[in-house]
Amino acid sequence: MAEDTQAPQLRVFASPGRYVQGRGALARLGELLAPLGSRPLLLADDTVRGLTEGVLAPAFSRAELPLTFERFGGLPTRSEIGRVARVLADGGHDVVVGVGGGTAIDTAKAAGDDAGIPWVSAATVASTDAPTSALSVVYTEDGGFESYRFYDRNPALVVVDTGFVAAAPARFLSAGIGDALATWIEARAVERAHSTTMVDGLPTRAGTALARLSWDILWESAPAALEAVEHGLVTPDVEAVVEANTLLSGLGFESGGLAAAHAVHDGLTAVEHTHHLAHGEKVNIGSLTQLVLEGAPAAEVDRFAEFTARLGLPTTLTEAGLGDVGDEVLDEVVAAATAPGETIHNLAFSPTAREVRDALRAVEGVGRRARRRAGLEEPRTPGGH
Known about the structure:
By secondary structure, the chain is an alpha/beta fold.
C-alpha cells in the first residue's frame, strides 16, 4: 500500500491566556499586568486616555508599575504598526497594552509581535471581537482592508471594563452585536464545508458551540442590553452581551471560522462610500449578503434583518451609502470580497462575482421590508454620497 504523504488536517482551538470582565476591571489592570512585565506601554488615543488615566494611575501605582502612554494614530496600518514597534524597542518596554477599541488593540498586537513582547487587550467598548484573537486586521492609509496578520499566540491577557462599555455610546455595543451575530452564520457554513478556520485547522466542536452560544445570548439579551446602555447602566443583560460580543464571538470566529460575511465587510472597505460605518455595521450587511447567497429560507433572512434593524444596525445598501451606485462600484466591492485568500472561499460552493453582486443588490429589498415590519423609517443615504 502506498504511503499517504499528505499532512493530516488537525482541529485547532486558540484562546487568550486570561479573560477578565466586569465593572471596575480596569482598576485591576496594574496587578493583572505585573506578572507579564515591569515596563508596560499603553497604546490609546487622546479620548481613551482622557477617560481611563484617572482609573489607571492609582492601579499602576499600587502595582508599582510606571504608567506610560503612547498616542495611537487611529488605524492599524503598516506605518503605524512600525512606528509603535520602534517606540517599544527604544523605550525598553516588555509588554504592550492596547486600550480602547479594536483598532488600538490590533495595532498593539502587531507592534508587540514585531518587538517580540507579550500583548494585552484592555477594551473600553464591546464593538468588535478583536480583543481575544491571534490576528490583526491591517488597513491601508485611506481606510481600506489590506490583509489579515496572524500570530502564533493570542493576547496574554484580555480585560473588559463593562462600566466603560455602558458609558460609551450605544452604537459601539450595537456594532459589536453585528460583528458577533455573524460568528454563528459563518461558523456553521465553515462546519458544513469542512473548511479551515483562522487558526489554520478544522473547526473544533468547542469553537462552533461557542459561536452558537454567542448567537443565542444575543437574541435573548441584546435589546435589553442596548436599552440599559442608553442609560449608562450595567445590568446582567449588558454583562451577557459584552461576553457574547467579546469572548464568545472572539473564540467562535477564530476557532469556528469566517466565511462570506467578513469577506463582504472587507469588500465594503474598498470603496469610500462605506467609511462612515463601523466594522460590525459593515459585517451586518455581509451577514445578510451571505444568507441571501446561501439561499437561506426567506423567513430566516427576514427575521434576521428585522432583528438587526431593531438593534440599529444597517440592513440596506442605502444606509451603507451604496443605494444608488452603479454596478462598477459594487464590482469593486465584489472584487475585493472574492479576492484569492478571502474567507468567502470557505463556503461549500464557489459563488461567481455576478452571484455575489446580485446578493448584495438583493439586500436592499430585504432590509427595506424588515424596516417596514419593524415600524422604522425608510433608510436614508448618508450625507455626501
